[in-house]
Specification:
single chain, alpha+beta, Mannose-Binding Protein A, Chain A, 3-stranded antiparallel beta sheet, two-stranded antiparallel ribbon, about 30% helix
Amino acid sequence: MNQGTAQSTCESKTPTVPGCTWKLPRLNDDMKNMITAAGGYVALRDGFSLVGGTNMRADRYWTRETDYYNPSYGLAYDFYSDGTSVTSPSNTYYVRACLAF
């Protein structure tokens, strides 16, 4: 989905954890912390099946961020190359929401 749809879809979901909300992850706050906690981007991408979930694809996933130099562009994190892409928010990428406490 595109970045705007990704963000509104995440925010519209109701988590089962009281007091929490779903959100599209921020690159440096949420995404990087999850990658570090998992032991690397491959471990995060491929680790969901270990707890009964569906692994992520080796592809781009939307973040909540916009480009610093051109705010009309979004940032996507690439779980294939451990990189960030500056891209049009109308492009279609994957989404993996995170919980906000």
